[in-house]
Amino acid sequence: MNNIDVLVIGAGPAGSISAAMIHKSGLSVRVVEREKFPRFVIGESLLPRCMEVLEDTGLLEAVKAKNFQQKSGAKFMKEGRVSDFNFSDQFSEGWTWTWQVQRADFDLALITEVESRGVRVDFETTVTAIEFFEDESSLTTVQRKDGTEEQINARFIIDASGYGRVIPRLFNLDKPSNLDPRKAIFAHVNDVHRNDHDEPNRIIAVMYAPGVWTWIIPFSNGVTSVGFVGSFEFFDSIDGDQIEKFKTCINGNEYLKKRFGDVTWVFEPRKLEAWSATTDKFYGKGFVLTGNVTEFLDPIFSSGVMFATVSSHLASKLVAEKLKGANVDWDHAYTHFIRQGVDTFRTFVMAWYDGTLEKIFFSTNPDPLIKRQICSVLAGYVWDQKNPFVRTHEKALKGLLKLIDIQEHSPQP
Ligand code: FAD
After folding, report:
1. Rounded distance, CA 379 to CA 368, Å?
2. 380 in ligand 1 pocket by Cβ < 6 Å?
3. What is the per-residue pLDDT for 119?
4. Which parts of the chain sit beneath pLDDT 70?
């Protein structure tokens, strides 16, 4: 089948959701994926907003069957102090929990379910070139592992190639991000001391040093993902190779040292760097970009898979409408919508790294309503215009910081 309605590039969460939606609409769809699954990819903590998409695409049950670790909130830790957000106590209506997942298994579960519905998925098949025509159709060249090539005609392409950034790279659409470049060193470890600690299965973000933080993402099988994120200078200032740097970081924090000081690896520390990327346009004649290809900000609030699922869910609905003859206003219906969510998180990411959120998270006597509103942003409900931390995100955070400063500097009775 090399004459199809929609070609989906990539079989990550964005690719699976896109393929499921196009298939559901009755159009023909084919997925091409560079890797053989299961494959490792980072991005292990989901947000409740993902659940709505998994439910609507009928993929929720396939994920439930994997028995992943449930995630009920966001917990931040600094020098023994804890700031806790529970998704069951939030402002926006929505899901109150989600999962912490080994992505290799999660992504495999999604694409296997999509394949079982009759969608053709070609693994180890890489897109190497695309030609678009006047009528918006395209001819895509793919190369298989054995070096053979095939050309696929499609009426439309959904680019869900994540860090591969296929269309932005082929057509020079990439733009530098306005976030500082950062680096992560991470590993999967046997978390044998998990039960010696409070809430052993909770995800925790540890504020490690100014501009540096640690993720702790426990999985249901006793393995935990641990990663350090900071500037290049921070990691350069630590001696040794990646393993030594990782161990030095562990030993530099009391909680981490107790829990992971005698760490044994499931896989040894790996690094990722300068991941923030964006592009000039999220769509064009004959294609739409979804998931990480649109924009990836930063790992701190675990927003990556949420954006991948929400953007591909919306994009594929619009593609189906368009191919059935509707006039789609992509700027308004897609770009504007996605940017609204991305910009809300961008403000929060910047506030995390400039210290604003630390002051807010650890302020004394937080207002319960404000806490619920912030909790909804952390759950991924970044399109709820009733929430001031969504509607006027920058102003709301600045205003709150000012209020906290005034309260903390006013004389106590
Ligand atoms: P991907 O999952 O990257 O899938 C894209 C697929 O396209 C891949 O399988 C790839 O092989 C395929 N592909 C690429 N090029 C081609 C080609 N030429 N031809 C065919 N196929 C191709 N997100 C979270 O939600 N939670 C987190 O806790 C989190 N932590 C992170 C930590 C770090 C350090 C970083 C850098 C990111 C983190 N993320 C996190 C983000 C997360 O990794 C991504 O947002 C998410 O994987 C995006 O999904 P996707 O489907 O868009 O892309």
Report:
1. 16
2. no
3. 98
4. 1, 411-413
CB atoms near residue 196 (< 10 Å): 9
Interior angle at CA 407, CA 403 and CA 411, nearest 5: 155
Measured from the Cα of 15, ligand 1's closest atom is 51
> Tokens 């869910």 belong to which residue?
313
Q: How far apart are CA 402 and CA 182, in angstroms?
A: 28
Q: What's the Cα-to-Cα distance from 54 to each of 46, 48, 110, 270, 304, rounded to whole Å?
A: 12, 10, 9, 30, 15
Residue 115's pLDDT is: 98
What are the start-end ranges of the H helices in 25-148?
Answer: 49-56, 60-64, 103-116
Q: Whose CA is nearest to atom 35 of ligand 1?
A: 299
Work out the angle at residue 299's Cα, subtended by the Cα atoms of residues 250 and 391, and round it to the nearest 5 degrees.
135
Which residue type sits at 81?
Answer: R
What is the whole-number distance in angstroms between the Cα of residue 1 and the centre of ligand 1? Answer: 27
Residue carrying structure tokens 């990539």: 10
Residue whose CA is at the smallest distance from ligand 1 atom 30? 43
- Sign (positive/negative) of CA torsion 226, 232, 237, 240? positive
Indicate whether this model's pTM tops 0.90: yes
Nearest atom in ligand 1 to the alpha carbon of residue 16 is: 51
User: Whose CA is closest to 162, among 280, 335, 286, 35?
Assistant: 35
For residue 186, give the ligand 1 atom closest to its CA: 34
Q: Tell me if 48 CB under 6 Å of ligand 1.
A: no
φ/ψ (deg, to 5) at 64: -55, -40
> 105: Cβ below 6 Å to ligand 1?
no
